[in-house]
Amino acid sequence: MAELLLQSREVPFRKGLQAGVSIAIGYAPVALTFGLLAKTTGLTFIETVLMSMVVFAGASQYMALSLISLGTSIFEIIFTTFIVNIRHFLMSTALNEKAEDDSLIKKALYSFGITDESFSVIATKDGVQKTGFILGVNIIGYMSWVTFTALGFVVGASLPHVLQESMAVALYAMFIGLLVPSMKGSLKVVYLAAVAAALNTIFTFTGALSTGWSIVIATLMSSVLIEVIEGIKRGNRQNEQ
Amino acid sequence: MSNEVLWLIIGMGLVTYLPRVAPFLLFKGKELPVFVQSVLKNVPYATLGALIFPGILLIGESIWYGLLGAAIAFIVAYIGANVVFVVLSAIIVLSGYSLFIS
Q: Which residue in B has a C-alpha nearest to residue A102's C-alpha?
């Protein structure tokens, strides 16, 4: 019986680790590049690895590097980080609806590991998600991020330039790999992604919003708009009957 | 390690963790209005759209580099390949493109 219980706890965790393999691979090039850039920016090895361990958010870590090299004040860098990462609020809120009921401590623990990538992997799966599964996905991504940051600091500069360049596509390819299977089954998913992509592109190229806000607003507008349109359509169909 | 960088890392860590953890502390889950719950169910797919575009267009010197990567990833994913395979094929094709074509 005890063994059975243990198994039922371990299986979701192991499945999470498996589902997170694509994240671990996708992070490798991004973290390698971060390690390399941090070194050229003048951070020490410890500082570089510590930043990946404590912050664990790719875009804002890159941004911090370029702000550091521009001589920006600490306060400004921290504020920019907050704006860039505010989108996680939306993701955590959505994930909270999907996650199994569990203690607040466990949720507070795994919420540290919520990223664009882990959220995408967990939230595109059907049904309620187990704590173990979420933890598994987040942990394997975290280990990859920290390990490859360190590796990038040490050996990043010796990677072939062509590979350094092409690895920039990794995370985007992963997002596409996660989105396409859901698109096949549902026109709604196609609309949701297309509208958000179009809005974010407009906001970005017109310079109307900073990157952090742009993703949040585009996502929200698309999610609400498509839901409202679907509601109206459903209402019309009911009226006709 | 300089004190300044240490404070920077701590500050960045705090403001990044805050939006990640806050919803779990604020909401118990399942108590939000039905409409809000439906909107939240849409969020993952809309987020993916916004994360892909326009970011992928800006990874190379011309937008064609990113578009080629997007096209490869789309096709490989459409065939039904695993995400790991999607990522690797996009990297390999773009490396080949840089080496042999441009």
A: B28
Q: Which residues of chain A are within 8 Å of residue B32 when distances are taken between CB atoms?
A: 97
| Angle, CA of A139, A171 and A161, to the nearest 5° | 115
Contact A74 B7 (CB under 8 A): yes
| Rounded Cα gap, residues A187 and B83, in angstroms | 21
Q: What is the DSSP letter of B97?
A: I
Tell me the residue range of the domain where B63 lies.
3-101
The residue of chain A with its CA nearest to that of B52 is A172
**DSSP three-state, residue A129:** strand
* B67 interface with A at CB cutoff 8 Å: no
Tens digits of residue pLDDT in A106-150: 999 999 999 999 999 999 998 899 999 999 999 999 999 999 999
d(CA A25, CA A174): 9
B39-50: per-residue pLDDT in tens? 988 988 998 999
ipTM: 0.89
Which three-class secondary structure state does DSSP give residue A99? strand
